[in-house]
Automatic annotation (TrEMBL):
<comment type="similarity">
    <text>Belongs to the class I-like SAM-binding methyltransferase superfamily. RsmB/NOP family.</text>
</comment>
<keyword id="KW-0949">S-adenosyl-L-methionine</keyword>
<dbReference type="InterPro" id="IPR049560">
    <property type="entry name" value="MeTrfase_RsmB-F_NOP2_cat"/>
</dbReference>
<keyword id="KW-0489">Methyltransferase</keyword>
<dbReference type="GO" id="GO:0008173">
    <property type="term" value="F:RNA methyltransferase activity"/>
</dbReference>
<feature type="binding site">
    <location>
        <position position="307"/>
    </location>
    <ligand>
        <name>S-adenosyl-L-methionine</name>
    </ligand>
</feature>
<dbReference type="InterPro" id="IPR001678">
    <property type="entry name" value="MeTrfase_RsmB-F_NOP2_dom"/>
</dbReference>
<dbReference type="GO" id="GO:0001510">
    <property type="term" value="P:RNA methylation"/>
</dbReference>
<dbReference type="GO" id="GO:0003723">
    <property type="term" value="F:RNA binding"/>
</dbReference>
<dbReference type="InterPro" id="IPR023267">
    <property type="entry name" value="RCMT"/>
</dbReference>
<protein>
    <submittedName>
        <fullName>NOL1/NOP2/sun domain-containing protein</fullName>
    </submittedName>
</protein>
<feature type="domain" description="SAM-dependent MTase RsmB/NOP-type">
    <location>
        <begin position="144"/>
        <end position="434"/>
    </location>
</feature>
<keyword id="KW-0808">Transferase</keyword>
<feature type="binding site">
    <location>
        <position position="262"/>
    </location>
    <ligand>
        <name>S-adenosyl-L-methionine</name>
    </ligand>
</feature>
<feature type="active site" description="Nucleophile">
    <location>
        <position position="360"/>
    </location>
</feature>
<dbReference type="Pfam" id="PF01189">
    <property type="entry name" value="Methyltr_RsmB-F"/>
</dbReference>
<dbReference type="InterPro" id="IPR029063">
    <property type="entry name" value="SAM-dependent_MTases_sf"/>
</dbReference>
Length: 435
């Protein structure tokens, strides 16, 4: 496909995302079914342009004085991809391209950013979230949000149940993976140019062998705060896809027992092939249709990990479409669910045991507020130093240790963000039950 046709396709996909409220993956997949002539590179180009238009939706619409899919796609070419008017003109003259640029579009495409634009415009986040952004980040809200509006690296965790980092590094060279600066047993693949196709990790033998798992560095650090020890009894209460379950199994060197539970039985069942690939043999799935099995664990766990369902604001770099779908009512629903989940999960912690509460959200309403509310109602629990717990695991590099110490909250919890740590947005706290 030539650029003009791909620009037209990006406008069509973005129209489905905005007007039909489709996730980008679904809209792009539907377009791909209609456009059988499009190759993998073409599909990556189109998806990359749509995602960048969404990442910078507010600022593009403001500069273009137009929030239509066409304006957002053209603005993404100019403001995110760095195309000049000549490049855009050339593409728009090709066969299957959209109509040529209007005079108004030309004027706006060369317009400089307005430093007086509102924070939610400069930071590209929903306007209704402005008070929450200001609460958590203060005067740095705009620059923090801008760091969430760029492409993210791909992070890999070395599965030490099968291999060490040195041995894993050799086959990862083909994917241009680099040693993580934050974690000893981790690598990251720098984000590619938005128009380029991402490398398929499934095609790398190290992945199919179970030597590495895709897991954001922030998620790995949160898992490290559990500091799970060989021989312990551990419950991953909201295991979801099982990324942290497998990370905990590696920490425990396959000794002891991990119980993986999730209210969504389908997601839990999807963990089975992942466990098989990882070689983690000390994991037992606790299915939601068998509540008696879960109840037998009450008061028995050395460690309960709660990766609570949340708004996912910390993943905006990877899922920019979700940024514009979230509504205040959904946030309030999540907060209610988190209150219920953390209270229920605490029942499984034995005297002297610990609970890790984590979210992939940077909102205090889902983080510190929920922890403070729980502690006010459960005096048998106290908050400990989450940064110290992550460091004690031995998984963090010196730089990783400095990062968690620097962004440790007064109460002991830790908040990581793309700007602060180069990770997704993550919050984690360690709560200890009295012995």
């Amino acid at each position: 496909m030539r650029n003009g046709g791909k620009i037209s396709a990006a406008i069509d996909v973005l129209t489905d995302v905005l007007n039909r409220h489709q996730p980008v993956k679904s809209a792009a997949r539907d377009w791909g079914k209609r456009a059988r002539y499009a190759g993998s590179k073409d599909r990556a180009w189109v998806s990359g342009l749509v995602l960048d238009a969404l990442r910078k939706r507010n600022s593009i619409a403001y500069r273009m004085d137009d929030e239509s899919p066409r304006a957002l796609v053209l603005g993404a070419l100019a403001f995110a991809w760095g195309w000049d008017i000549r490049q855009i003109d050339t593409a728009m003259e090709e066969e299957h391209a959209p109509s040529k640029l209007t005079l108004s579009e030309r004027e706006h495409l060369v317009m400089a950013p307005d430093p007086s634009a509102p924070p939610h415009v400069q930071g590209d986040y929903p306007e209704w979230m402005a008070p929450m952004m200001a609460r958590v980040f203060g005067e740095e809200a705009t620059v923090e949000a801008q760091a969430m509006a760029v492409r993210a690296d791909v992070d890999l965790r070395v599965n030490t149940l099968k291999v060490d980092a040195e041995k894993a590094s050799m086959p990862l060279k083909s994917a241009k993976a680099e040693q993580s600066r934050l974690l000893h047993n981790a690598f990251h693949i720098p984000a590619k140019d938005p128009s380029e196709r991402e490398a398929s990790l499934e095609s790398i033998p190290a992945y199919s062998k179970g030597w590495v798992e895709v897991q954001d560095a922030g998620s790995q650090i949160a898992a490290a705060a559990a500091n799970a020890q060989p021989g312990e009894q551990v419950l991953d209460y909201c295991s979801g896809g099982g990324g942290k379950t497998i990370a905990l199994a590696a920490q425990m060197k396959g000794k002891g027992q991990i119980f993986a539970y999730d209210i969504d039985g389908k997601r839990l069942s999807a963990l089975i092939p992942r466990l098989k690939r990882s070689g983690a043999h000390n994991v037992q799935l606790v299915h939601p249709t068998e509540p008696v099995q879960l109840e037998t664990l009450t008061g028995q766990m050395d460690c309960v990990f709660v990766d609570a369902p949340c708004t996912g604001t910390g993943t905006w770099r990877r899922r920019p479409d979700s940024k514009w779908r979230i509504k205040q009512g959904q946030l309030e629903k999540r907060m209610s669910e988190q209150t219920e989940i953390i209270a229920k999960a605490s029942e499984f912690v034995k005297p002297g045991g610990r609970m890790i509460y984590a979210t992939c959200s940077f909102l205090m309403e889902e983080d510190e507020d929920r922890v403070a509310e729980f502690l006010s109602m459960h005096p048998e629990f106290t908050e400990e130093d989450a940064a110290g717990a992550a460091i004690a695991s031995g998984l963090l590099t010196d730089e990783g240790a400095n990062v968690v110490q620097r962004f440790r909250m007064p109460t002991g919890s830790v908040r990581l963000t793309p700007r602060r740590a180069g990770t997704d947005g993550f919050f984690f706290a360690v709560l200890r039950r009295a012995g």
